[in-house]
């Protein structure tokens, strides 16, 4: 959630210590099974109080907003969760330790509010934290310390008794390593499951904390997980993942995480800013189109009661909502990009492909791709413009002149659809760097190391059965490898030393010897060797899969006078050689 203005100054003092804590190695719990509570088979849609109202909430506002969601047609489009964010509670628990609604803000009580929402055909969402204080309490904007720490089972039962359908669970503390966060979030996951009530579980590990959201696949813990710091109603704040985040900044973080999305679990780039000041109409349309193609929860954050016709035209765009809500549950992958122009493609359940032509630049430009590049086969296709509804035909070219900060979106039908291979990069949790074939060499025996993540082919892995293939070779531990042996690439031969298990905790274990891929010595610098070592669950043995850019870069779109390639080249200088000799 967005915090008071004092938040930025306070965070600078606490995050330095938090970063170190996050990367600390602690005992890792056994790998959890994927979280499957039957909920969020498609990304949830609804509205949240915080972006517009912050702590200034009461039951009249919530009821009026529910009425407006129904009256504006948003409910029929799929917006159903009405989420009451921070500051809804009495600052004190009752004598039995139960949470209570604030008697002045919610005099009818929280169950009565839930009943009202259910009577409107809507669902009831509520906010809580796994630590002692909510974010508003942490910053002194609201009294008390009513977090769920030590009350998880009691609070889950209370939520179920009130008829809650959606829990937003916000970390709100600089303390805790990522492993401690996983264990703490899992306690509420299990407590909710024990109630027997279906409740969507949405977590945010990033609030007042080092940004752990993009460092792992949280699908074993929750239905939704925030990937970035809090959003604000601006296009670009210059942040990579700090407070506050603009629309473009969030897209930069969220796009590479596409491989995590699936029915029941989605990356959450935060609540929407459509209908609030600060963004142009073009930027608001881009915001919605990008959230839709990224399979993001569509949680409105404006004052629905006063929505303009233009705002409702964006929020109620049925074609884009259909892309977001497609039952395959896939997030778009980036198929091309040059730093200004990006092409995102999302395969849909009926064989169509949604494609977004996104212009991050400050001037209008042409963005182009082809049907083949987005996974379509054939010679004739129909393009449906998801903003205008107009249809056209093409033999393969897909192109549009896109305004600054704009996004053209098409649904491409006809021909066949090829399922892209599961291509990804492997990013080390401790270092934030990617598994890399040294100097992009495909020679047998080329060793593995970590290096800054880029889009080169020497970091692009494909899962084929139990093998991990890169540059036409297989990742292997040398035959008979003992702990400390250097991981390398070799011609694929199907032997056990080339077979790997990708565990749910992020470890990658070799079938020949049970050893795990390990960044040597826990170092984090470029060029550090990657070896196999006895599995211990440390951060230097945990890897996250990031979507790898596939298809050709936009070289045909790059300005003719630009001497540099559109993507960073994979090969690097020879001065590295001695630093990581096997």
TrEMBL record:
Keyword Hydrolase: yes
InterPro entries, A to Z: Aldolase_TIM, GH, Glyco_hydro_27, Glyco_hydro_27/36_CS, Glyco_hydro_b, Melibiase_C, Ricin_B-like_lectins, Ricin_B_lectin
Family: Belongs to the glycosyl hydrolase 27 family.
Domain Ricin B lectin: 421-546
TM region(s), chain numbering: none
SUPFAM superfamilies: (Trans)glycosidases (SSF51445), Glycosyl hydrolase domain (SSF51011), Ricin B-like lectins (SSF50370)
Keyword Ribosomal protein: no
One annotated GO molecular function: alpha-galactosidase activity
Domain of life: Bacteria
Keywords (A to Z) from UniProt: Disulfide bond, Glycosidase, Hydrolase, Signal
Coiled-coil region: none
Signal peptide interval: 1-34
CDD domains linked to this entry: beta-trefoil_Ricin_XLN-like (cd23418), GH27 (cd14792)
Protein name, entry field: Alpha-galactosidase
Gene Ontology biological process terms, A to Z: carbohydrate metabolic process
Catalysed reactions listed for this entry: Hydrolysis of terminal, non-reducing alpha-D-galactose residues in alpha-D-galactosides, including galactose oligosaccharides, galactomannans and galactolipids
Main enzyme class: hydrolase
Species whose genome carries this gene: Phytomonospora endophytica
Positions with biased composition (Pro residues): 562-571
EC number, UniProt record: 3.2.1.22
Gene3D superfamilies for the chain: 2.80.10.50, Aldolase class I, Golgi alpha-mannosidase II
Positions of region (Disordered): 552-582
């Amino acid at each position: 959630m967005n915090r008071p203005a004092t938040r930025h100054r306070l965070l600078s003092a606490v995050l330095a210590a938090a970063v170190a804590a996050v990367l600390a190695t602690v005992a890792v719990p056994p790998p959890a099974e994927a979280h499957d509570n039957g909920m969020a088979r498609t990304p949830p849609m609804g509205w949240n109080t915080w972006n517009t109202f912050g702590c200034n909430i009461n039951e009249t506002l919530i009821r009026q907003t529910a009425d407006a969601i129904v009256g504006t047609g948003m409910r029929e489009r799929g917006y159903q969760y009405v989420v009451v964010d921070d500051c809804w509670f009495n600052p004190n628990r009752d004598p039995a330790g139960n949470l209570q609604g604030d008697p002045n803000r919610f005099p009818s009580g929280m169950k009565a509010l839930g009943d009202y929402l259910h009577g409107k055909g809507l669902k009831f969402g509520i906010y809580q934290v796994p630590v002692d204080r909510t974010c508003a309490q942490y910053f002194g904007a609201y009294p008390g310390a009513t977090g769920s720490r030590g009350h998880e089972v009691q609070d889950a039962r209370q939520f179920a008794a009130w008829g809650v359908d959606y829990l937003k669970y916000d970390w709100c503390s600089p303390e805790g390593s990522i492993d401690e966060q996983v264990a703490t979030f899992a306690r509420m996951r299990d407590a909710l499951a024990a109630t027997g009530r279906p409740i969507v579980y949405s977590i945010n590990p990033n609030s007042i904390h080092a940004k752990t959201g993009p460092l792992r696949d949280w699908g074993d813990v929750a239905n939704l997980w925030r990937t970035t710091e809090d959003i604000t109603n601006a296009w670009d704040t210059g942040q990579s993942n700090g407070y506050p985040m603009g629309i473009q900044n969030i897209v930069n973080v969220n796009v590479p995480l596409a491989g995590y999305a699936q029915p029941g679990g989605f990356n959450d780039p935060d609540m929407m800013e459509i209908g609030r000041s600060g963004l142009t109409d073009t930027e608001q349309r881009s915001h919605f189109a990008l959230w839709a193609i990224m399979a993001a929860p569509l949680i409105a954050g404006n004052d629905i009661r006063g929505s303009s016709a233009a705002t409702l035209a964006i929020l109620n765009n049925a074609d884009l909502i259909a892309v977001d809500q497609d039952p395959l549950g896939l997030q778009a992958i980036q198929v091309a990009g040059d730093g200004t122009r990006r092409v995102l493609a999302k395969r849909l359940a009926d064989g169509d492909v949604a494609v977004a032509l996104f212009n991050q630049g400050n001037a209008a430009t042409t963005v182009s791709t082809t049907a083949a590049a987005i996974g379509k086969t054939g010679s004739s296709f129909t393009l449906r413009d998801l903003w205008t509804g107009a249809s056209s035909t093409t033999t393969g070219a897909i192109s549009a002149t896109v305004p600054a900060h704009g996004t053209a979106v098409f649904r491409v039908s006809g021909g066949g659809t090829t399922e892209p291979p599961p291509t990804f990069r492997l990013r080390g949790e401790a270092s934030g760097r990617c598994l890399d074939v040294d100097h992009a060499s495909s020679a047998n025996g080329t060793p593995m190391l970590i290096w800054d993540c880029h889009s080169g082919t020497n970091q692009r892995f494909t899962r084929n059965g139990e093998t991990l293939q890169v540059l036409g070779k297989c990742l292997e531990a040398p035959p008979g490898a003992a702990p400390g042996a250097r991981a390398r690439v070799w011609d694929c031969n199907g032997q056990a030393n080339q077979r790997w298990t990708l565990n749910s905790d992020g470890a990658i274990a070799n079938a020949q010897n049970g050893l795990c891929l390990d960044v040597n010595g826990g170092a984090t610098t470029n060029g550090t060797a990657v070896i196999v070592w006895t599995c211990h669950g440390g951060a230097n043995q945990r890897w996250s899969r990031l979507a790898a850019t596939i298809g050709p870069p936009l070289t045909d779109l790059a300005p003719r006078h630009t001497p540099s390639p559109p993507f960073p080249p994979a090969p690097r200088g020879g001065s590295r050689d001695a630093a990581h000799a096997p």
